[in-house]
Please model this.
Amino acid sequence: MSYSKLTRFSEIGKKIIAVGRNYSEHAAELGNAVPSKPIIFLKPTSSYVKSGQAIKIPNGCSSLHHEVELGIVIDQKGCDIPESKAMDYVGGYVLALDMTARDFQDEAKKKGHPWSLAKGFDTSCPIGNFISKESLADPGNAHLWLKVNDTMKQDGNTKDMIFSIPYLISYISGYFTLEPGDLILTGTPSGVGPVTQGDVIKAGLDGISELEFKVEQK
Ligand SMILES: CC(=O)CC(=O)C(=O)O
Ligand SMILES: [Mg+2]
Model:
């Protein structure tokens, strides 16, 4: 099946591979160094949540953060993909949130533990509609924004990524075989911050995709 033909994200759902600290201003705002290699982590597919459903604050979390990100949808199987061929493996895009239990993550970082609970809890990957490859002419220069209760919190551009989309696809495929339906979250620009029960998150990409989610206690 060709994912470039898809119009609904419900038909997608294999690995979710996320990149961390891919914008230097975001690395700085959390006191982290700019990475010399991409930082990669996984989110389970049970973390997907679609428009009309709520983001649920996970049990015991006291600091749930929003992170708006451009998602790349893969539509061909491949490993060790050269950077020059990487865009041939892209079937489309999706606007996504990498919801993060920041208190869990801070504790995990201190202890050298994995980020699985901080990044992978149910509803931690809200997504908008599938965006065809043709609709987003230059994914390396796309405006990303996020508002909480109509106040702008994140206002960035994918041109500020440290590692480009072709580089990320090539790098990741050196370790994980990419398969049709996989989603790569490309990291968040600066402005991340907390949300609480009752907040409404809205986000947009280049005037071609918008999403809206309410935050609820689990
Ligand atoms: C510090 C983080 O949570 C890394 C991350 O997910 C990002 O997008 O950057
Ligand atoms: Mg992120």
User: Anything to note?
Assistant: The chain has one domain: 3-217. Residues 3-217 form a domain with the Fumarylacetoacetate hydrolase; domain 2 fold (CATH 3.90.850.10).
